[in-house]
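Problem: given the chain below (77 residues), write out its structure.
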Amino acid sequence: MSIKVRYFASLKESVGRSEDELAFVEAISVADVWMQANKGAVMPENILAAVNMEYVNFDSLVNDADEVAFFPPVTGG
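Solution.
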């Protein structure tokens, strides 16, 4: 299965890229997507995740052709 991983805002700068394309054999969690895409690097605190443009928990499963997005918390004023 193939998953697109996207990074936004300051998170894109800290990981050094805007996206990854990953291949997996079976469904995995959002947290595992982070670990695989970032070679075991610890996930920054307070980041948010979305699958197919919907906010999800990090234990949510990702399936074939899903898009996973990671981004820092959004603030407004």
